[in-house]
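W.,

You were right to be curious about this one. When I first looked at the sequence I had no strong expectations either way, so I just let the prediction run and decided to look at it fresh. Below is the sequence, 364 residues in total, followed by the output.
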Amino acid sequence: MTLSNFRSLIHGSLLLILLLVTPRVWAAGMETVKIAADQSGFVLYPSGDRFVPWGHNYASVDIMERLANDPDRVEREFAEMQAAGTTVARVHPEMFHILTGPDQADPEALDRLKRLLKIAEDSGIRLKITGLACYKISERMAWYDSMEEQDRWKTQAFFWETIARTCAESPAVFAYDLVNEPGAVGKREDGWYLGRMGEVEFCQRLSLDPGTRSGDDIFREWTKRMVSAIRKHDQTHLITMGMLPFPGANKAAAEQLDFVSPHLYPKSGKVDDEIELLKKFDWGKPIVIGETFPLSCSVDEERDFLLKSRPFAHGWIGHWPDESPVELAEMEETGKATIHSVIWLSWVNLFKELGPQMTEGTSQ
């Protein structure tokens, strides 16, 4: 047996133990997450134990495809994340997988979502479910993008009603994340989407016809409608929104959210600037940094940012690699590492290193 095969066997055995033993512990007593009474973070109900969101964005553009084609992989990777100390996974079920029409949902897709909830419950990892994802340019729904604003909002509200109805009873839901990095207003010629990276666009606009409404007006009106759609079916789980690093543009939306979720990527040599930016999102509600990563800085600077952010933030979510951490480590040991794999492994190692400090005093 080669060294690589031996490592794979050990890795598989450890994951099997996690999948067979750990679920019985988590599923039996998973509690619901609530905002602490003093707004200083999160607690579990009914125990009152402190809870710290510490986790990753997972399968950002293909979670529903993985559930359809390789659910065993999803179970395995949730076990890997749990073993690394993860308490929250942010997932992005794309709209075209969920909806078959303006007011029609795919029952099979909802069954897959229920399976994801079960996987999360069994692993002890709670989900931050991001909505309205239309990231893959090639998969967008023409009928949806041809809608005028109010019909589009109506379909978005139906999406959230569908998700909330499906997920309301599961303690594995940490929060509903209304949409990823929205812009309030855009020009009709620019279209609904922005933030292109290759064949995906991660952001969308809420209105192309603002009329006399300001960006704040649009954020307030839209957020109120989405929150109302969720609350028709789920009065319990928390609601937030993934925010670009522009506090002034997002403050109006935050008025109706349970907590704030800015996306902050520190730049090399400017860690303290990013901390000052983080402070500007202090609107009297808990802050969970919904995306962060050593994308534009060194791993040491990312460590510095995370540690310095502790007095101001109450949770942190990075990104989980598509490759297994064991595979990434083997690539490094055998001299086959790429710049890409080195960055991912450095994040996983940093995440495991800092976990005890970042979640000190928390209970899962």
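Here's what jumped out at me. The first strand starts at residue 32 and ends at 35. And, maybe more interesting for your project: The longest helix spans residues 3-29.

Coffee later to discuss?

I.
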